[in-house]
Amino acid sequence: MAKEQHAYEEFMKGLWRENPVFVQVLGLCPLLAVTNSAINGLAMGLASFFVLLGSSILVSLLKKHIPKQVRISCFIIIIATFVTVVDYSLAAAMPVIHKELGAFIPLIVCNCLILGRMEAFASRNTLRMSIADAFGMGAGFLFALVALGGAREILGVGEFFGISLFGPNFEPWVIMILPPGGFITLGVMLLYFNWVEERKNQIDKQIAAEDGVN
Amino acid sequence: MGDLGWIFISTLLINNFVLAYFLGLCPFLGVSNKLEVSFRLGLATIFVMVVTALCAWILNTYVLIYAPYLRLISFIVVIASVVQLIEMAIKKLSPTLFRALGIFLPLITTNCAILGLAIFATNKGYGLWEGLVYALGAGMGFTLAIVLMAGMRQEVEKANEMPKLIKGFAFNLIISGILSMAFMGFAGLFSSS
Amino acid sequence: MSEDKIEQDATPEEPSPLRLIGTLAIAGLASGIIIIAIYLATFETIKENKARELRESVFRVLPNVTKMQKLLLKEGKLVVSYEEEKGEEPIYAGYDDSGKFMGYAIPSDGPGFADTISVLYGYRPADRKVIGMWILASRETPGLGDKIYKDAAFVANFDDLAIEPPIVATKKGKSKPNEIDAITGATISSVAVAKIINKGNAHWVSKLPEPGNEPAYEEPAEPAAPAASSEAVDTQAP
């Protein structure tokens, strides 16, 4: 069915092709700060996912009632409400994670990704598509967070999700879990994505050239 | 070295908002290609930060004791309003200044650094003076980082051969990483007494 | 395609300022209600979590302690406190099963290598000794400075430490009762911990009552509601 196809495409778009971190380079502030371990990345990813999904649903449902002039303020109020809900829920249910993420949970409000999605998508699309988009972007963000957190944790401490990978003789590359490591790891990952993009372009060009010849 | 001095130097150098706490990255990576522009953005940010610190302290002391759960939403609303008011004031008082700074002010609203400043200052329990000094240090730290970044990017643009792959965000991030490493050298600046 | 994408409205009617303000007001109100709801729903749990965390740290720095209470300095005397007051500077008293006073747990903080370090340490006034130390918060360098809480030997330095003359961190192997062994490669962090405890002592020791006159353990009253706790206690059925 055409509708099913579209929703699925929206989802995949957020996950890979227009991945919020690796392609659009959004939401960097919380990303680098909490990805010093895979579990922190996972927790932040899930928290942001919840806020993105909830806000998308609400904005999409209410889009006809929000006047254009005050839409950004309304989006921010909606997002801030969801973030506060997540903050308190986490503090009650998982106090250890809450302490690890610390002040960066409230900073989800500033995540350009969430506000950007409200403006660019949820306020202009149906509920079903907005949910698909939120799922896709949220999943893409979550994927990026866990990938980054995992990479830094493996190199910086020798563990993945707290499980020691290399045994006690591993000399940890400590800088990886410090701020510079965050910058550099993300930079290298972006480099990889650029490379993949470049390869794809070259292959496409080759195919086009061959087609031209034929 | 008094407490205020420690707060200022610590936030400016050792725990730089951008290079150690990853706040304010959007403008840092996105807008830092021209030195002049970056410097002006930095100044605007310092101003907004100091005003925000003041407002946050007022809110915390007089209003939020009764409703601590409204902290996040009131901070955001205050920051957005403050920026709006500052923009209108600058527009009226000095059109030249407005033309130089104007477009940056709305950008500053979603700058995680401003909200981060308010939240961090609250969590650390800073009073009025400590909060203001903290804001000054944070804003100047942000300006320092973004100006250094702009300077380096301008120099690099003059280079002839830069691999296409590395252009753009990837390169900026790696430079930021090296800059962040350099700033790590400031740690322990005042502890040896 | 057009089934799924809603076109932008073609009618450019300007909503009245009243409508704009009204929308914002409704949004603000709805938001406020939701936030208050979640706050009330999680209040008790968060309070319990904090209390549990505090209890665990106090029990860590005071051996053989099973009960504790919070003390505040009021008019020069230490009194037991159950409420939370803004800007308070509490210390904690620990008691064993029989209610015998075992020591104080004193929080203190100060600059470390990277950022502020928060310390809780146990103090026994009878022989004026530090009897335990626990790092509450720190951002020291992983692998080096973070040994101040990861290195069990360093933490054990504080199990039996004289406080006069003030605690000193030495690199050459401790020989005096007020010395601790600094961590190799993390001298500054180690020295910071010593200074933080000295600072805590300078602030508190003179204000503590004579050994033997510590506040006795009081069984806590019935748990009160989140707000207006004093009234709740009075109206409790006896």
Description:
The complex is a heterotrimer of chains A (about 210), B (about 190) and C (about 240). Chain A has one domain. Chain A is about 70% helix and about 0% strand. Chain A contains eight helices and two strands; from the N terminus they run αααααααββα. A two-stranded antiparallel ribbon of chain A has the order 1-2. In chain A, helix 3 (about 40-60) runs antiparallel to helix 7 (about 125-155), helix 4 (about 70-95) packs across helix 5 and helix 4 crosses helix 6 (about 110-120). In chain A, about 50% of the residues are buried. Chain B has one domain (about 5-185). Helix content of chain B is about 75%, strand content about 0%. Chain B has nine helices and no strands. Chain B has helices spanning about 5-15, 25-30, 35-65, 70-95, 95-100, 105-110, 110-125, 130-155, 170-185. In chain B, helix 4 packs across helix 5 (about 95-100) and helix 4 (about 70-95) packs across helix 7 (about 110-125). Chain B starts with a helix and ends in a 9-residue tail after the last helix. The model of chain B has no long low-confidence stretch (mean pLDDT about 80). Chain C contains five helices and nine strands. Chain C has helices at about 15-60, 145-150, 150-155, 185-205, 230-235, and strands at about 65-75, 75-80, 90-95, 100-110, 115-125, 130-135, 160, 170, 180. A seven-stranded antiparallel sheet of chain C has the order 2-1-3-4-5-6-7. Chain C has a two-stranded parallel ribbon with strand order 8-9. Mean pLDDT of chain C is about 80; it is low at about 1-10 and about 225-238. The interface of A and B includes residues 81, 102 and 115 of A.
Question: In sequence order, what are the helices and strands of chain B, one letter per element?
Answer: HHHHHHHHH
Q: Helical stretch count of chain B? A: 9
Shape of chain B: globular
Number of separate structural domains of chain A: 1
First-to-last CA distance of chain B: 10 Å
Defining traits:
heterotrimer; A: 214 residues; mainly alpha; two-stranded antiparallel sheet; 2% strand; flat; B: 193 residues; globular
